Amino acid sequence: MIEQANCRHEYVKIFQRKLKGLERRLLSTRAYLPTGFKQADFGHLGEGSFCFCTKCRTRLYPKRTQQERLAARAALAASQALDKQNAELQSQVDEAGGTSEIHVEELVLESPDFGDVVQEGVVLGGEEDSFEFNEDEG
To answer: Residue range 35-44: average pLDDT?
Structure first.
């Protein structure tokens, strides 16, 4: 704790989302912040970017207020409670003998054999005339 109070946050790591290949990745860049560097100087960083001090690991950008921290904790607690409730409901359904699995019969595709096409003929474009295959012309 004493180290954090004396830290001047000179050396930082900046994490930004950048396009690399076909996907966006979070890439880190090391930087040196001179004395007098202000929060407004982080204006070039976009949404989803972060900046941390390498020495004391303090989050420098984006600064979070106490209200935002409390809201994040409340949202995390609510999501964990919802997950726990869903797990309890699932266990009750399993105990009651109900099953959450759905069985679906799969359609088996069969391709027509060449012999079937030759015997029955082929209808082209909805015409009544059928094309017949002659082995002599082949």
So the answer is: 75
- Tokens at 104, concatenated: 């679906």
Residue 114 is assigned to a structural domain of this protein:
no
99 domain residue, yes or no = no
29-38 as b/e: b if 16+ CB within 10 A = eeeebeeebe
Total-model pTM: 0.40
Q: How buried is 62 (Cβ within 10 angstroms: 0-12 exposed, 13-18 middle, 19+ buried)?
A: middle
Residue 56 in this model has a pLDDT that exceeds 70:
yes
According to the model, what pLDDT value does residue 1 have?
A: 44
* Interatomic CA distance for residues 55 and 8, integer angstroms: 9
Distance of CA 126 to the CA centre of its chain: 47
Q: Among 71, 70, 69, 67, which Cα is nearest to 59's?
A: 69
pLDDT at residue number 74: 94
Q: Is 52 helix (H, G, I), strand (E, B) or coil?
A: strand
Q: Residue 37's domain spans which residues?
A: 1-87
